[in-house]
TrEMBL record:
Coiled coil: none annotated. GO terms for molecular function: ATP binding; protein serine/threonine kinase activity. One of its GO terms (cellular component) is Golgi apparatus. Residues 17-300 form the Protein kinase domain. This is non-specific serine/threonine protein kinase. InterPro entries: Kinase-like_dom_sf, Prot_kinase_dom, Ser/Thr-specific_kinases, Ser/Thr_kinase_AS. The keyword Kinase applies.
Length: 307
């Protein structure tokens, strides 16, 4: 048993935390499970490593978005700090640290993985109840002031499950202003590169794979991702995961908009129609979040009547 004073500690503003374990690691950040040295409460600390001013600006923007988005289905931020100055061990110029709640149930992705092994499907009622809450969280992004925001990386791995089984949208690192007018090939390429860096392939909207030189991108990129999330809640994986695993082109599969459902599906046609309603390859044919919520309520009512 090691002495408590030998534990790795993190200082964020006036509070000290003991690092208990590493929860996750990405290309831009790490997440540690920590214990408040004073209250002994457990938190997750996200540490974003910045390699220059541009990185730092993006990280601080993420902190700003936590302040803007106050919703029960969007993760909250308890505290944050910018640690300026170079760190030769991390090859960084600064670090941004964000104190977040810790959910011991983990992510929707990890639950679906466990269920997949046992082929243990969720009931239609549970799926739709959870999905409706995810939609309400997404609506908070799309209604943000002064201008609508898009999450841009909605996927089952970015949805946590709270103690009462509520879904909590996390990871605001990919959040961006929703409505982007693209004027010219260099702007299109810039947005395409950003999407390939920050938006997971199996959940990425078709218009972000091949951004046209003159177009309008809006919050309906998230609606496509929501369609993929609902499909995964039913069948454990996004409709494009199998394409990715085979090494085939996810971009071509998404642009074709050809979605198939397992023959032995335990779900009725209304749920399939709701998924297809969101997975329109042409973004102009895709609904806004309000229509998705309305249609989800309709499907819930239909299922209740049939039951």
């Amino acid at each position: 048993m090691g002495c408590i004073c030998s534990r790795e500690t993190v200082q964020i503003n006036s509070r000290k935390y003991y690092v208990r374990e590493r929860l996750g690691e990405g290309g831009f950040s790490t997440v540690d499970l920590v214990e408040d040295a004073h209250s002994h409460k457990i938190y997750a600390v996200k540490k974003i490593i910045c390699h220059g001013e541009a990185d730092q600006k993006v990280a601080m923007k993420e902190v700003e978005y936590y302040g803007l988005l106050k919703h029960p289905n969007v993760i909250e931020c308890f505290d944050s700090a910018l640690k300026a100055g170079p760190n030769p061990f991390l090859n960084s110029t600064s670090e941004v640290m964000i104190v977040l709640p810790y959910y011991k149930s983990g992510t929707l992705a990890s639950e679906l993985e466990r269920r997949s092994v046992r082929r243990e499907y969720m009931s239609s009622a549970e799926i739709l109840s959870m999905f409706l809450q995810i939609c309400e969280g997404v609506k908070a992004f799309h209604e943000a002031k002064p201008e609508p925001l898009s999450h841009r990386d909605l996927k089952t791995a970015n949805i946590l499950i709270s103690g009462d089984r509520s879904p909590i949208i996390m990871d605001l690192g990919s959040v961006a202003v929703a409505r982007v007018k693209v004027c010219g090939s260099s702007e299109a390429q810039q947005l395409q590169d950003l999407a390939s860096e920050r938006c997971s392939m199996s959940y990425r909207a078709p218009e972000l794979f091949n951004v046209e030189s003159y177009c309008m991108i809006d919050e309906r990129t998230d609606i496509w991702s929501l369609g993929c999330v609902l499909y995964a809640m039913c069948y454990f994986k996004s409709p494009f995961d199998a394409v990715y695993e085979r090494g085939d082109s996810v971009a071509l599969a998404a642009i074709s908009g050809n979605i198939t459902f397992p023959e032995s599906s335990p779900y009725n046609s209304e749920i399939h129609e709701l998924i297809l309603y969101m997975l329109k390859a042409n973004p102009m044919e895709r609904p806004y979040i309000y229509s998705v919520i309305e249609k989800t309520h309709d499907v819930i009512s239909t299922i209740e009547v049939k039951a």
